[in-house]
Amino acid sequence: MGDCLWILLRTARRNWQNPNPVFAGLVPEGEEMDSTEQNRGVFRVTREARGRVPADGIELAFGYWPGRGAPVVALHGLTASYLNFIGVAECLAGRLPLLAVDLRGRGDSDQPAGPYGMAQHARDVAAAMKAMGLGASIVIGHSMGAFVASALAQQEPSLVSGLILIDGGYVLDIPAGVNQDQALNAALALRIAQLRQTYPSRQEYREFWRTQPHFPAREWNRWVEAFLDYEVGGESPVQPKASEAAVRGDLAEGFQRDAILARLKSIRVPTMFIRAESGFTPDQPPLYPDSVVPQIRACVPHMKDHKFAGTTHYTVVLGERGATKIADLLCEMTTQRIGSSA
Hints:
Rossmann fold; 12 strands; 16% strand
């Protein structure tokens, strides 16, 4: 780890209980420090920084990409990690900073036996934001992270100035004749089997996913490889890091329709809903087809809807076309927010 990153992480730890924002002392790469900034110990971050931050009784791992202004807070999906947003962060290219966390039970964050669920994740994120001195921020969530984002907006509205929900956040009706418990058990069985699978090495893990249709060859890139490398722990063999207890606890909430709709109806900040054109693979129908948009808008009337052509549930954030569009929309939302408050 370079000296600059070490200074960032050491200073962040020292300032967790300080009312002054940790990130107020960051100068993006390419900008010069004036004499006042030099005198008060401002430092420059030139690339992604990693660290840990206290949350609600645990610690969360995080990644921070530097930029100008207040950080965007990014929340990943069910078995993913903060590196789910590496493409978005790099496409921002310093226009905005991005702070992404590993939710409890995932990545390098603590893995308690419990509790889990969207409300608990929201408490963790709120505690981490406060520890880092962050105020009202644009919060972006992908898949399960979108559900967490809406929970955060409901529980801690002063911390959320805008929402971008990506292929998640709204619960679909269970098809007629399908038993809810059976559907949950089937989903759990598949996820748990994936988490228990081991691979000889990170390279073998990458090659396994390279052969799957989830990441079409045209969308395979270094972001996907970095995401997959971090997703597993150990040396040989390697195994997905996500906790079984976390997946069980969080997946069970996917059918709590009333609570999910109540969170969406409570949203009062600018909101975008981004949908992938395809499902988990290019040949699958989308998770959120056009017909569902009016149902979501009934909960969030001011929502702006965007469908990204040529993307799947995964490449909508990790593919070049999806990450580029999301980064541009983040900048657009930030500009509009600044304009409305002027």
